[in-house]
Design a protein that fits this description.
alpha/beta, 7 helices, disordered N terminus
Length: 193
């Protein structure tokens, strides 16, 4: 009788844990960073959030330079500033990556508004949207964004944002936000590649 001295070091399917997906999110400010840092959880995907120095295009270029096998997806969360030329340049630059864009018109604070109320009225500026957010969440400030103030409204925000721009084809539609697509991926833990 022949005795096998070979051992199987590989894991069997039983009890094997699914590997967490990983996301790199580059954004332009503290508000966005605090929001996405608040989404981290032990069971969800790995989320690395960074705020590189520079303008919008510099942030996208930084994201392109950081695309690697380390991350399943690299995203930039940026405001359009209601600027058609800037938005077109960000979209062109992101295609080099590939980098996904979560653009908000006029600004990220519109995404936060959607956690609490349905809002389809256009904003004159980012400051106009920030004023509206402070009316809804009086404790909110750009230097103090607490994810807990928004967590209960995530599903509603995703529905409202998708309803405003179902095909995501108009990044400059005022108001609109594509952040819901990133949040949906983070919540499902699915890989983007």
């Amino acid at each position: 009788m022949k005795v096998s001295t070979e051992t199987r070091l590989g894991r069997n399917g039983r009890g094997a844990r699914k590997e967490r997906s990983s996301f790199l999110i580059l954004c332009e400010g503290k508000t966005e960073k605090d929001y996405f840092a608040g989404m981290r959880s032990r069971r969800g995907p790995q989320i690395d959030v960074d705020v590189p120095k520079g303008d919008h295009l510099s942030v996208v270029r930084e994201a392109v330079s950081r695309v690697s096998n380390e991350y399943d997806a690299v995203w930039c969360v940026l405001d359009t500033e209601l600027d058609e030329t800037l938005t077109a340049a960000m979209l062109r630059e992101a295609r080099r990556g590939p980098v996904e864009l979560g653009l908000s018109t006029p600004c990220f604070e519109f995404w936060l508004i959607l956690h609490h109320v349905d809002c389809a009225r256009p904003f004159q500026s980012a400051e106009d949207a920030k004023r509206k957010l402070r009316e809804i969440v009086p404790s909110w400030s750009e230097s103090n964004t607490r994810f807990a103030d928004f967590t209960d409204g995530i599903d509603a925000a995703c529905r409202r944002a998708q309803k405003l721009s179902p095909d995501s084809g108009e990044p400059l539609k005022n108001p609109s936000t594509g952040v819901w697509q990133l949040v949906a991926r983070l919540r499902s833990g699915s890989e983007a590649r």
